[in-house]
Design goal:
- The structure is a single chain.
- 38% of the residues lie in helices and 19% in strands.
- With 695 residues, it is α+β, with helices and mostly antiparallel strands.
- The strands form 6 sheets. Strands 12, 13, 14, 16, 17, 19 and 20 form a 7-stranded antiparallel beta sheet that branches. A 5-stranded mixed beta sheet has the order 2-11-10-3-9. A 4-stranded antiparallel beta sheet has the order 5-4-7-8.
- Strand 13 and strand 14 form a beta hairpin.
- About 2% of the residues have low confidence.
């Protein structure tokens, strides 16, 4: 090797090291990763290859685990290092791990033959250590740099899923009771469910606050809040998956990894159910294929699977390196970041007039689905990512759900690639599109005179967080607006069978059901009506406070700015938005028309509080980890309310019959699903019987 080549490679090594360090800090310390996990993994692979070539592995940046703890938190030294995991990215790499593990045990004269492994999901969350002494939670800490973590006990105390005191509930393994008078360190992962993440970002937008990039960032950022009251509002969950520093006499009872997980369950911890133990190496591959095929069906984000030796003695024999255990490996799924061409950028108009640029892509398969469109969010995002029509771009599904354009591939850009400029007029109605000072978006100024805003406003008005009219979907709204049968909110209450039946996909029975639902909607509470108006910056909580303060829609519509600002949790921005909405002449007419159409003219605090208590403040969790199916027509509540009720009691609502369903709630006129449940000997319960249980 020439001297010049060596110097160039050394410089390249240093550059790569600095790049990796930068991304380690962004991910572990700042909770704001700059690049995707896949891009980071590729960077690490490149650096490892160069380290090996130059024989510099001893001083590798990979010897570090995580990052230095933040100075704002008390530091807690780990009694046993919280190590990271080595990664493999294909089956050849995994086969090599199996071979190496087997050989190491043979060399130690401990075992000859096909070893047994456990396979668990690799959660994309934040690693956490929980230390218990004499059954009481003493402290909780993050991984930090592997040796020292951050004390986050004050925030962990807000998470219901984490036991504050260990209580031995059962002994399914029929082993002798273990001593609970020593130290027990439970390790696991803090995470946020996908659906909870979507709802969290929705609430962020309502509050006019920045959205979270992904569930992992949201979870990590939440745990590192200094104000625990903010953490309490975040939907954080915890999966236990491993044991740290624990008194030896306790561990004597547990020879296998699966025993540890069963023990955690008996102590009240949540453990991921998708796992398998006592697998031979060839069966590991089969189970991994199953996980990868179904990875988008899980309620939480995963980025792979963790393979461990099942027998804990073997784990102890093999030991660890300075950064990772030798008995375990992380199998990372192939990247879901793909390359495609940006064909065009089109503008969509939302219910508040927001002009959103949307990428029209050369259709490409990402994460199991074909993606042809992706939101580009706003004008600033376009500038930041420097996207031009004709560019080749990188696309992924953010949170495995929403298509996201990560950026353009500059080296592939040609002169023909055209910059895109946001329009100064609404592309739908031609009205001025204004970008106000301090904002990153443009808005059409036409209000409901713009057909695009009208459609979106009506969809919101009949939606589940407002009037919740079942059967009144987006396609029906589009039909009604296009045919000029519905022009404003109050027109919904004038719909009849004569109007509805001739519509596409609308028979007599469907029309009758919809009319019944519209009639029920006349009883909607005032706070839901206010939320349905779609006033900018006004969400469910603000609607409730406005309804409580002003009592009627008419009072609210004539409220002065000072009165609005004196309402609970309402500042100048929201107050001005409300005042501006009701000052517009077309909205004044809306108020009058809606007042005439609702039975409840004023705010009923008792009724609203009753609903809030029923749906939000339930403490009993008798449905914890239970799967519930509802079939037939409900008499006493809407399907969405029942769903919330089930979830608040710890259960999960599903739509199809299977052996995994714990019990079935049978309503009126239940059909095939009820019959199937009976045939499968599933537990069935009537609506009234269920409500008695929760009363």
């Amino acid at each position: 090797m020439t001297q010049k080549k060596t110097i160039n490679q050394t410089l390249a090594l240093k550059k790569l090291e600095n790049e990796v360090k930068k991304h380690q800090k962004a991910y572990h310390h700042d909770d704001q990763p700059i690049i995707s996990d896949h891009s980071y993994d590729l960077l690490c692979q490149k650096l490892r290859a160069l380290e090996k070539k130059l024989n510099t592995q001893e001083n590798s940046v990979f010897e570090n685990v995580g990052h230095q703890p933040k100075a704002t938190f008390i530091n807690i030294p780990h009694k046993m290092p919280m190590l990271s995991l080595d990664n493999v990215f294909n089956y050849d790499g995994l086969a090599n791990f199996f071979s190496k593990t087997n050989q190491n045990l043979i060399n130690k004269k401990k075992y000859i033959g096909d070893l047994q492994y456990s396979v668990e999901l690799k959660f994309d969350g934040l690693a956490l250590s929980l230390m218990y002494e004499k059954t009481n939670l003493v402290y909780a800490s993050t991984r930090g740099n592997g040796a020292i973590g951050e004390d986050v006990t004050h925030n962990i105390l807000t998470i219901d899923e984490i036991p504050k005191k260990l209580t031995f509930k059962s002994d399914s393994s029929k082993k002798s009771p273990f001593p609970l008078n020593g130290l027990i360190e439970v390790r696991g992962e803090i995470y946020i469910n996908k659906n909870d993440f979507v709802e969290l970002n929705r609430k962020q937008l309502i509050k006019n606050q920045k959205e979270f990039a992904n569930p992992r960032n949201a979870a990590a950022g939440s745990i590192r809040q200094l104000d625990s009251s903010k953490v309490a509002d975040r939907p954080l969950k915890f999966f236990a998956h491993g044991i740290g520093f624990t008194d030896p006499e306790i561990l004597e009872y547990f020879p296998y990894q699966s025993d540890i997980l069963a023990w955690f369950v008996s102590l009240g911890f949540q453990v991921c159910k998708t796992r398998k133990s006592f697998l031979s190496s060839h069966k590991v591959f089969t189970f991994l294929k199953f996980i990868e095929k179904n990875k988008y069906t899980f309620d939480f984000e995963i980025d792979g699977a963790v393979i461990k030796l099942e027998k804990l003695d073997f784990q102890k024999f093999l030991g660890t390196t300075s950064r990772a255990p030798k008995y375990s490996i992380a199998y990372k799924f192939p990247s879901d970041v793909v390359e495609t061409k940006l064909l065009n950028i089109e503008i969509q108009v939302g219910r508040t007039g927001t002009l959103t640029p949307v990428a029209k892509l050369d259709p490409v398969r990402v994460g199991g689905v074909v993606v042809a469109n992706a939101s580009l969010h706003n004008e600033d995002e376009l500038i930041k990512k420097d996207l031009r029509i004709g560019d080749y771009v990188l696309v992924r599904r953010a949170g495995d759900v929403i298509p996201e354009v990560l950026g353009s591939i500059k080296k592939s850009r040609v002169l023909e690639c055209k910059p895109f400029l946001m329009p100064e007029n609404c592309p739908v109605c031609g009205s001025s599109a204004v970008r106000e000072l301090g904002e990153s978006i443009r808005r059409c100024t036409a209000g409901m005179s713009c057909s695009a805003q009208k459609v979106q406003a009506l969809i919101h008005f009949v939606g589940k967080n407002a009037l919740n009219i079942e059967g009144f979907g987006e396609k029906l709204v589009l039909q009604l607006v296009e045919k000029k049968l519905v022009n404003t909110f109050s027109d919904i209450f004038n719909l009849s069978l004569e109007i509805l039946v001739p519509l596409e996909r609308m028979g007599i029975k469907s029309a009758e059901n919809l009319i019944n639902e519209i009639t029920k909607a006349r009883k909607t509470s005032l706070d839901k009506v206010i939320n349905g108006l779609g006033i900018r910056h006004v969400g469910e909580k603000t609607s409730y406070e406005l309804a409580k303060k002003f009592q009627t829609l008419k009072n609210l519509s004539t409220a002065k700015i000072e009165e609005l600002e004196n309402t609970v949790d309402i500042g100048p921005t929201v107050a001005e938005s409300v005042r501006k909405f009701f000052s517009q002449s077309e909205n004044k007419k809306i108020v009058q028309d809606l007042t005439d159409n609702f039975e409840k003219k004023s705010f009923d605090e008792n009724q609203t509080n009753k609903r809030q208590n029923l749906l939000l403040n339930i403490e009993k969790k008798f449905l914890l980890d239970k799967t519930v199916l509802v079939t037939g027509t409900l008499e006493s509540m809407k399907r969405e309310d029942l769903k919330k009720l089930i979830e608040n009691y710890g259960g999960r609502l599903v739509k199809s019959v299977s052996a995994k369903v714990d019990f079935v709630i049978v309503g009126q006129s239940a059909g095939a699903k009820a019959d199937q449940a009976i045939k499968m000997n599933l537990k069935t319960i009537s609506e009234k019987e269920f409500l008695k249980l929760v009363d």
